Amino acid sequence: MGRLSFVGLGLGASGITLEGVDELKSASTVYLEYYTTPHEPRLLTEIERATGKRPVVVDRDFVEDGNRILTEAEGKRVALAVLGDPMIATTHNELRVRAIKKGVETRVIHSATIASAAASASGLHSYKFSRTVTVTRESVGRLTQAYHILHQNILEGAHTLLLLEYDTQSGEGVSPADAMAGLLLAEGNFKRGVVSEKTFAIVLSRVGREDAAKAAGGFESLSKGEFGEPPHCVIIPGRLHFTETEAVSAIFAIGESDVRGNSDGVLRTAQTLVPKYVSKTRKALDSVRNRLGPQYEPVVENAELYMKDAETFLANGEDEMAMLSIGYAEGLLDSLGFAGVVRIDW
C-alpha cells in the first residue's frame, strides 16, 4: 500500500529525529527539497549515512507540481524530506491535502523549526511572539505589509520574527541590512514611530548549525554588521519582561541597560491621523465662520462638538469612535459646501 510521508529534518544535518530516520528507511523513494533554506554541505551524506537512502534532490517546481510524487505514492511509500518542520510551508500542506483527496495515506514527522528555535536562541518568551513576517527579495524595497504587521505587534507588546528569504537556486536573498533598510523606508512613508536607527533588534544566523551566529543591538549598528552565510532572521521585540531582558543580556553579552523593548512611544494609526484631521477641520471652520448666517449656528456648534469628541475619544484609546467623530465634523462642513451655502477650502 502506498503512503506519502513528510519528514522534517530539523535545523541542521543532524536534526532529524529517530522517528524520521525510521520513516526514510522504510520509503521506496526519498525526495529532498531545500529551495528556501541553504543547507550544510554534509546534509546529503548525513541522511544517507543515517538511513541508507540517497535522496533525490528536487526543486520548487517539482514539489509545487507534485504530480509525480502523488502518482508514485499511490502504489509505494514515498517520503519528502524537508529542512525544518514540513507543515510550516503552505506548499507541503497543499500537497498533503491533494494526497488525502486522492485516497493516499499521509504521515507527518515533525521536527524543530525556526519559528520555535528563534525564541529559544534569543532568550525571549515564545508565547509573546505574534504574526511572523517573511521578507522576500520582491518586497524588501516596499515593506508596507511587513511594516503594518510589525506596527500592530509592537502596539500589543508582542515580538515579531522576520524570516529573510533565500533562494538556493539563484543564490540570492535578503540580508539583515536589507530588511532593516526596507523598514526604515516604510517608516519614512507612514511615520508611526515603529522603527528608527535606535530600534533594538536581534539577528540570528544559521540557527541550529555548528556555525550559528547571533548579534543584538540597534538598527544603526546591526545594519553595518557582517553575519556570514544565510539563512538569517531578525527579531524585533515588543515589550520586554525583566526575565527576557536578563536572558538577552546574558546570551548576547551586552549590558541590561542596552536591551530595550520597542513598544514605548509607538503611535497608533489614529494618534497620527486624528490630530491632523482635527487641525484641518478647525482651520476650515474658522475660515467660514464669519460668512455663515445665524441659522447655521447649530451646524457650526455640532461640528465643534464632534471635534472635541474626537479628541476625547482619542485620549481614551477609543480610536474607531475618534475617527468616526472627526468624520462627522468634516461631513457637516462638506454639507454646507455641497448645498452652496459657503465655499469650503480644505
Structure characterization notes:
The chain contains 13 helices and 12 strands. It is of the alpha/beta class and 346 residues long. It folds into 3 domains: 3-112, 3-Layer(aba) Sandwich (Cobalt-precorrin-4 Transmethylase, domain 1); 115-258, Methyltransferase, Cobalt-precorrin-4 Transmethylase, Domain 2; 269-338, Up-down Bundle (Substrate Binding Domain Of Dnak, Chain:A, Domain 2), CATH 1.20.1270. Strands 3-2-4-1-5 form a 5-stranded parallel sheet, sandwiched between helices. A 5-stranded mixed sheet has the order 6-7-12-10-11. A two-stranded antiparallel ribbon has the order 8-9. Helix 7 (144-155) links the parallel strand 6 and strand 7. Helix 12 (297-315) packs antiparallel against helix 13 (319-338). The longest helix is centred in the last third of the chain and has 20 residues, at 269-288. The mean pLDDT is 93.
Features:
Methyltransferase, Cobalt-precorrin-4 Transmethylase, Domain 2; alpha/beta; elongated; single chain; five-stranded parallel beta sheet; Substrate Binding Domain Of Dnak, Chain:A, Domain 2; 44% helix; Cobalt-precorrin-4 Transmethylase, domain 1
